[in-house]
Amino acid sequence: MIDFLTQLAANPVVTNALWPAFLETLLMVGVSGVATVVLGLPVGVVLFVTQPGGLAHNRPVNVVLGSVGVNITRSVPYAILMLSLVPFTRWIVGTSIGPIAASVSLTIAAVPFFARLVEAALREVAPGKVDAAHAMGSTRFQTVWKVLLPESAPALVAGVTTTVVTLIGYSAMAGLIGGGGLGRLAYNYGYQRFQPDVMVLILVILVVLVQLVQWAGDAVVSKVDHR
Questions:
Q1: 22 within 8 A of 182, measured Cβ to Cβ
Q2: Which residue from 102, 148, 101, 92 is spatially nearest to 124, judged by alpha carbons?
Q3: What percent of the chain has pLDDT over 90?
Q4: How many domains would you assign to the chain?
Q5: Beta-carbon contacts of residue 124 (< 8 Å; ≥ 6 apart)
Q6: pLDDT given for residue 120 in this prediction
Q7: In this structure, are residues 164 and 29 in contact, taking their beta carbons and an 8 Å threshold?
Q8: What distance in Å separates the CA atoms of residue 220 and residue 29, rounded to the nearest whole number?
Q9: How wide is the angle at C-alpha 49 spanned by C-alphas 46 and 52, nearest 5°?
Q10: Which domain holds residue 93?
């Protein structure tokens, strides 16, 4: 074990490339995570309020957004979606390689996933609280902003945590087509150059990163859950 760690510490890949790759992974996950929450939250709210019996029942909007927009995107495997979005990514950010470019496909893949989590979280709110808000004269916007979102905060935070964990896994795949990060490092050195020590180290880092995100998410849930 000591020999393995000594050999690993002396590996130039570890000393020179690991830290930049780790920062690229954090950049990909951070940018796409923020964009996913900003875009996915309103999509999830619209899906909830336009469903049958919702605050603003609108079947055409619900069907188009849910069945066509969200479900179709979720049905496409991320690897295929990532490759098909290369021209769009190049048009948006001017390049198809690097962590920022990878953030485009990561966001598009994660928004439908997070939107469904938001919709499910809002369904957990007791209908009586919504009815009470209406009885007090709240508008639809006020009901969403002051009742639905605060009451579903624990489930929403849990959804954000699950989404970020998913993005960490997706970011490793994004590295295979020029996204950079730990995924690229694992593929270039751990797989193509047969350096299993590098592969093991990257796996350990990803596992620890996921555990830290999950721990932070659980801690925030416990803070916002007043039940």
A1: yes
A2: 148
A3: 37
A4: 1
A5: 152, 155
A6: 93
A7: yes
A8: 19
A9: 120
A10: 2-224
